[in-house]
Amino acid sequence: QVQLVESGGGLVQAGGSLKLSCAASVTISRNTVMGWYRQAPGKQRELVATFTSAGNQSYVDSVKGRFTISRDNAKNTMYLQMNTLKPEDTAVYYCNIKVGWSNFWGQGTQVTVSS
């Protein structure tokens, strides 16, 4: 069973920054498909940023230029650096990893951006 543990969420003012971490219980590599999703109240969960199977990074348009996804394979940990945060970034952020044919999710971490 794959376990993902997120941390780093919190309350921040608009324009501020936060860095989320996601520690995986499995070995990750440059080809591991993994990413960050978020779900705001009353909205569907959306993909925010991801590593593709080719190791490339992909972002939803609304966070391009503000968020950066990264990972440390030696620590089996993925990060999401979030800068210039906006109130509309408020959501529960989840990390996700694909192992074989299965998807695994973390428990989520709340990010709240005040105006």
Rg calculated over all Cα atoms: 13 Å
Spatial shape? globular
Average of per-residue pLDDT values: 96
Give the N-terminus to C-terminus distance in angstroms.
40 Å
Classify the beta-strand content into a percent band.
over 45%
Multimerization state? single chain
Structural class: mainly beta
How many helix segments?
0
Order of helices and strands: EEEEEEEEEEE
> Got a strand count?
11
Helix content: under 10%
Major sheet size, sense and barrel closure:
7 strands, mixed
What would you say this structure looks like, in words?
- The protein is mostly beta strands.
- It has no helices and 11 strands.
- The strands form 2 sheets. Strands 2, 4, 5, 6, 9, 10 and 11 form a 7-stranded mixed beta sheet that branches.
- β5 (46-51) and β6 (57-59) form a beta hairpin.
- It is globular and about 40 Å long.
- 29% of the residues are buried.
